[in-house]
Automatic annotation (TrEMBL):
<dbReference type="Pfam" id="PF18962">
    <property type="entry name" value="Por_Secre_tail"/>
</dbReference>
<feature type="domain" description="Secretion system C-terminal sorting">
    <location>
        <begin position="856"/>
        <end position="920"/>
    </location>
</feature>
<dbReference type="InterPro" id="IPR026444">
    <property type="entry name" value="Secre_tail"/>
</dbReference>
<protein>
    <recommendedName>
        <fullName>Secretion system C-terminal sorting domain-containing protein</fullName>
    </recommendedName>
</protein>
<keyword id="KW-0732">Signal</keyword>
<feature type="signal peptide">
    <location>
        <begin position="1"/>
        <end position="18"/>
    </location>
</feature>
<dbReference type="InterPro" id="IPR012334">
    <property type="entry name" value="Pectin_lyas_fold"/>
</dbReference>
<dbReference type="InterPro" id="IPR011050">
    <property type="entry name" value="Pectin_lyase_fold/virulence"/>
</dbReference>
Amino acid sequence: MKKTLLLLTFLVFGFTQAQTIIYVDVDATGANNGSSWANAYTSLHSALGIQTITGAQIWIAEGTYMPVNKNTPMLNQYGVSIYGGFVGTETSLSQRSTDPWAHPVYLTGDLALDDANELPSATSANKTDNAPIILKVEPNSASKTQEITLDRLHFVNSYGGSALYSHPSSSNEVQRKITVQNCRFSRNYASTRPAMDIWSNETVNDYPFELFNSILDENVSNSGYAFEYRITNYINLEHDIFIANNMFIGNKVETANASGSVARFISATGGSTRLNVYFQNNTLTLNEEGSNVTSDVASPIRFETVGSAETIGFWGNNLYYSNYGTSDYIGTQDTSSSTISTGYANASEFTPVIGSANLLTNYTLSESPFVDIFSGDFIPISAYRDNGEATHNYGYYSSFNPTTDCFMNPRRNADSSIGLGAIQYTDTAMLTGPGNIAPLSLPEPPTVIYVDANATGANDGTSWTNAYTSLDDANISALGSGSKIFVKSGTYKLTSGEISINSEIEIYGGFNGTETSEIDRDLSIVNTSNATIISGDILDDDISGDFTQNKSDNSSSLFNLAANNVIIDGFVLSNFYTTSGSPIVKVTTNVSNFELSNTLINNNYSNSILFDWRTFSGSVSINNVAITDNQTNNGLILLQHNDTNSSILESNWSNVLVANNTYNADWGAIWFRRGTLNNDGRLFKSSLTNVSFIDNVNNHASTQQVINVSSGSGWGVFEFRNSLFWQNKYNGGQLSTVDIENSKTAEGDIQTVRVYNTIAMVGSGVTSGTFDNSNITLLDPTTDNLNLDAEYKPTSASNYIVDQGDNTYYDIALFGDLDLSGNDRIFNTTIDLGAYEYNSTLSVDDISLDENTVKLYPNPATDVVNIKTNQTIKNVRVFNVNGQKVLDIANQSQINISNLPTGMYFLNINTNQSNQTIKILKQ
């Protein structure tokens, strides 16, 4: 046994000695010959220039290193791998810190160390000493077959070239493979390619380049591309490159008509050469294209080819958010040779066009997917931590990509699921990266204006104490883009006329006056005990249900929407009265991207249409909204896609109740209307998920349907999922026998209608195109009974509704995890039909359990949370919204949260049978 151990020791010793290691430490005071940490070279330039051993490794201790002069870059010509991040005592790579961003090694082009703290530009001062190239990789013929790694290096402040340069001409050699990992490229500037310029004339099909777990932030180019990868010179080959777990943040293009602020991938060899780009789990945010780029290249990523070559992308689990001038995942002027072949689970605010037929499971972002973009915290919020594509190679290519994320956390969750973007959240000892990422590019935190009818402070809107006391005083019309208005519960009236919304703002109600963010609100009482009511009844003399008397004082209009990206969330909007136009949200100009959420709209009157929306583009989201007890002399909602609208109009409705409204229209209550222009890419798409249409009355003599869909060009897709239509009437009281139809036949039929898991009667003329349906339940309203309560919520007897939905149709990331009451949307594992989930509100007296159930009550809670389950509780951990653990309690079914601040928390409950995380509100 001893001999065996001695032999193993010898073999290990012999193996480690076979690898030549050269040491570099700027603070070394020994012989400076690179033989040990004590005798390390003090200059990387010297280490690269003196040693001639092919395939050696250079280890660098933390510190700052630079070329010997601006025109002589550090030259890697012997196939040397370079590793940073050492303290200067380690004897193996694995002894370095588990945090790859600790002990940074800076390779700087700022030889005088006098650069200003600014984004570099063509006019930057103090740049005459800056090196254009910091590190050049140009192997000799003996070392070109080496596969080198550059690890834990920070390339900063090069000016006029490329910080990392490997750009062979036809006569030069090229490294067989370059892997760049855990590196950072910051504030480099050039006309083009300031961070990296990597060309390959490798002659065999191979995997010549990898960029993993790295950060490129605030690099500026005049005409595009923080970095470029290019195949050149050789034809009829295929290269695969892998770009994964990287953060591309705050990179910028200066020229107005230029784009590709992050990268260009180009196959420039002709023939049948193909460059395959596996671009997976990257985060792209705050990058900036030129101000006048055309739509085909409006992206931080450019694809190009020469001749008959191809550049093909495989896009998976990437996060695009708030990139200026970006409207697509990639930009290219030739989609026949440059496109995305396959894409899975990417997220963005826009609807991608290039390769769209090949993009699966796209997520549309209506708000920041990050914990706090304003402070530079780019960890994804909970909705994007486990919904990536985890099994397909085109989502995350595990055979090539790392097992860790950009910060060296496990790339996958314990259940093998994967999140979106470069950072994988973990609740155990999470590494949080270098910090200070793109600090000069972070957006200013939104201005928050507070309104409280009973505030007694300075009344300047700066806090709840000093809140304005009226919406008129808040002067919403004059607020700048990015502002938020928080309105405390109470009743507010407009004494100065309608409110014009002229900039991109967000207006929230439903506060109790202690919250610091809209996410702190208790959505289960946002329209009841915490209701923020905006009433049109100035004199408080309206008679309930009467739309004729005492209306001379009533406001005729609330909001005039004249800006993009507006959110209205958390209000009760009542008693507006108009003889023309739309009383609640008026839209008279072309605007895009509007969201209405967590709002009750009731007891309003219009002699025309309640919501006459004919000029929207982009997206219109109606989530957790109740429209009840209103009266019009036309329909309720007209949502029209005009011929002048840009690209796609996409409307998503979820958890919406439309009930007990009276109207008089030959198209019913809601009309989805497409213009006459031929497709040209201008598609109208609507999805209605978990929506309830109940007890509405159309006074028209012959039109029965609630929903009308039409298209003058045919182009349109409409989906109804997990929804219900019930007891709707026409001609003053006759039961309707059709719920979805097209009575406006002269305008043409829509292209595609899909109805899934829905109680509805669909008319035979709804479409002349594709009618796709499954699990449509046909009931007779004269004999069947949904057994709803007085608020149209399901009861224990609602057998046609409870657990009759399909979870796959409900996108929690897009629609949220709460029903219209603000309670859990999916209860007892299967979603219900309609806007409400049965029994999702818990009380001490109404708890029934099966063996797999874990329930909390009360929720919201003030002092104590009780856990009800038949399982054995092992431990309970409580996390705040930032992912910080605030409590850890073993073997307890009663959790004292009295010492926690008010807000939202997540209880992770570990039992002998399961591990569940449940959200709770502390009041």
